[in-house]
Amino acid sequence: MREVTEQGECCALVDAGNAFDPLSAAANGVNLKRLLWVKCAAPHPKLTPVDKALNAADMIISAGGFGVVVLDLGDIGPHLARKIPLASWYRFRRAVESTSTALVVLEQQPFAKSCASLVITLQTSSSEWAPTLCQPQNPKLLTGSNFAAVVTRSRMATSQRKPPGQATTAFRVATSWAG
């Protein structure tokens, strides 16, 4: 989202679990003025957060105008995400195929299956912690994490592409309170 908003494009984040922290996003360079944040976890008499997230993502993709649409199902239990019909994933794939929009789905486990053009697994390499109030008995605060993004499956056809498992990128994510 940082790179897309830096280029002047707009992003949409469909947040099924209300896990998004705008302060951390801003600390990591996301331009919040170019971000549409849809929160889906508020109670509804008939719709689950997953239903609301799928409906919102469908409307946003259909409307167009976004460089990236992120569907965050990371805080949704696998038992709920597993119930998403394969037809929904195919519909999303067909909707973005002929556009310049990238649909990114964040999940605990890969549920989009054969509909995904690219599957990336994040692996934590280290975490950074800081003491609180200079007292050793106080809990420590997480100030950042270092990750490696590993391509585990790709349909992208390029002559320079590495085989799955060999294409790796390292990056760091800082918390908003890290300073």
Strand order of the largest sheet: 2-1-3-4
Cα shape: globular
Q: Would you state the CATH class of the largest domain?
A: Alpha Beta
Distance between the first and last residues' Cα: 21 Å
Total domain units: 2
CATH architectural category of the largest domain = 3-Layer(aba) Sandwich
Order of helices and strands: HEHEHEHHEEEE
Low-confidence stretches: none
Radius of gyration: 18 Å
Mean pLDDT over the residues: 83
Largest sheet: 4 strands, parallel
Strand content: 25-35%
Structural class: alpha/beta
Work out the helicity level.
10-25%
Structural notes for this entry:
The protein has 179 residues and is α/β, with parallel strands linked by helices. The protein has two domains: 1-109, 3-Layer(aba) Sandwich (Rossmann fold); 117-179, no CATH class. It has five helices and seven strands; from the N terminus they run H-E-H-E-H-E-H-H-E-E-E-E. Strands 2-1-3-4 form a four-stranded parallel β-sheet, covered by helices on one side. A three-stranded antiparallel β-sheet has the order 5-6-7, with no helix packed on it. The two termini are 21 Å apart.
Structure described in brief:
The chain has helices spanning 2-6, 22-27, 49-63, 78-81, 86-97, and strands spanning 11-15, 35-39, 68-72, 102-106, 118-131, 140-154, 168-174.
Features:
single chain; 179 residues; alpha/beta; Rossmann fold; 2 domains; 4-stranded parallel sheet; 3-stranded antiparallel sheet; 7 strands; globular
